[in-house]
């Protein structure tokens, strides 16, 4: 792959999807530098990596350093991990929207964010409503290139314990076989596919703003195939 000098920022690099995304971008010759804004240290160094530890709930304070060609936002918490609804919204709504606003202020053209299936600003379910409100606030900014990924249940092994999610994954291992046709978007999705699709979207024109799991998986195959040929 042709060496380039692109730069990117990742929010949520200590999570499952964000960590895989970071690993892929560090290995991608199109990128010269990857900056990670994080609350917790990554625990490793790399010649292409810049790590900025900060309070993500006060991301606006990082405006001078918030400069890149692309922003990848993989921030997200859970009801079990963050039972306080006010704090939950500060994370799942506040951080992505603050990041998108910094894109606007600093003339960063591309913003890619992981949302969730079922996101709906008019939903009576608090967690779906928060995600939907986040999407609406991001899109209202009118950034040149915005893509919102709406994955279903994300597979893979996490470092943290999530009992409810574990049970859901075991159930979905059975139900996934029944998810065909229009139901494909409900199938469990691999975090590697989310990361691969984010990278593909950042480097290719794509008309749609919101992408469900079935589309994410389809695009990921294109990116995986391209990487395997390099």
From TrEMBL:
Pfam families: NAD_binding_10 (PF13460)
Domain called NAD(P)-binding: residue spans: 12-129
SUPFAM superfamilies, alphabetized: NAD(P)-binding Rossmann-fold domains (SSF51735)
Designated name of the protein: NAD(P)H-binding protein
Lineage of producing organism: Bacteria, Pseudomonadati, Bacteroidota, Flavobacteriia, Flavobacteriales
């Amino acid at each position: 792959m042709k060496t380039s000098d692109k730069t990117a920022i990742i929010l949520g690099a200590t999570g499952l999807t964000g960590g895989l995304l970071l690993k892929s971008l560090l290995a991608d010759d199109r990128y010269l530098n990857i900056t990670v804004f994080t609350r917790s240290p990554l625990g490793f160094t790399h010649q292409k990596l810049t790590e900025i530890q900060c309070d993500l709930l006060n991301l606006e304070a990082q405006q001078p350093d918030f400069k890149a060609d692309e922003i990848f936002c993989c921030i997200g918490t859970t009801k079990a991990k963050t039972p306080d609804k006010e704090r939950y919204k500060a994370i799942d709504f506040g951080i992505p929207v603050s990041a998108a606003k910094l894109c606007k202020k600093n003339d960063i053209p591309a913003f890619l964010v992981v949302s969730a299936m079922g996101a709906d600003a008019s939903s009576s379910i608090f967690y779906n409503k928060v995600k939907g409100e986040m999407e609406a606030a991001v899109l209202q900014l009118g950034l040149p290139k915005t893509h919102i990924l709406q994955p279903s249940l994300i597979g893979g092994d996490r470092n943290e314990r999530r009992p409810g999610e574990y049970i859901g994954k075991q159930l979905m291992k059975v139900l996934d076989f029944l998810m065909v046709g229009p139901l494909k978007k409900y199938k469990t999705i691999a975090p590697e596919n989310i990361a691969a699709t984010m990278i593909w979207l950042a480097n290719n024109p794509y008309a749609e703003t919101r992408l469900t799991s079935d589309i994410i998986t389809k695009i990921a195959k294109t990116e995986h195939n391209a990487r395997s040929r390099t």
